[in-house]
């Protein structure tokens, strides 16, 4: 189950070339297979952050580098189902993790 989503960035304006590292925390250690993604909202644009690390822990890290058209003070994930599993995100007992992000309307600057 997802506990929450945070980011490496302090609040403020995103500029072109900024790398965002959203972190998704789970209640249990999870193992990732495949390439999960996290759908982000940057201002009026939606983009996918790709999985970069964290399998075997409770925190998965994603990354996205902003394009020249992605300047905004608003950074969020799009909806409760913004996290997709790739092939799978499972706990040690091979149960699929619940991927719903319940507080999806919260800005997640660090």
Task: Describe, in plain words, how this protein is organized in 3D.
This protein is mainly β and 110 residues long. It contains no helices and nine strands. The chain has strands spanning 2-6, 19-20, 23-33, 37-42, 45-53, 57-65, 75-77, 83-84, 88-90. Strands 1, 2, 3, 4, 5, 6, 7, 8 and 9 form a nine-stranded antiparallel β-sheet that branches. The chain is elongated.
Summed up:
By secondary structure, the protein is mainly beta.
List the defining traits of the structure above.
110 residues, mainly beta
Report the helical percentage: under 10%
Distance between the termini: 21 Å
SS-based structural class? mainly beta
Average residue pLDDT = 86
Which regions have little confidence, pLDDT < 50, spanning 5+ residues? none
Per DSSP, the total helix count is 0
Written as H for each helix and E for each strand, in order along the chain, the element string is EEEEEEEEE
The share of residues in extended strands comes to over 45%
Report the count of strand segments.
9
What's the main sheet like?
9 strands, antiparallel
Tertiary shape: elongated
Radius of gyration: 13 Å
């Amino acid at each position: 189950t997802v506990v929450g989503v945070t980011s490496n960035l302090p609040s403020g304006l995103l500029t072109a070339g900024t790398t965002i590292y959203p972190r998704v925390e789970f209640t249990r250690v999870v193992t990732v297979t495949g390439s999960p993604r996290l759908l982000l909202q940057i201002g009026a644009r939606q983009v996918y952050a790709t999985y970069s690390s964290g399998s075997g822990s409770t925190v998965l890290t994603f990354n996205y580098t902003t394009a020249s058209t992605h300047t905004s003070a608003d950074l969020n994930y799009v909806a409760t189902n913004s996290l997709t599993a790739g092939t799978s995100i499972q706990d040690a007992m091979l149960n699929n993790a619940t991927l719903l992000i319940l507080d999806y309307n919260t800005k997640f600057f660090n």
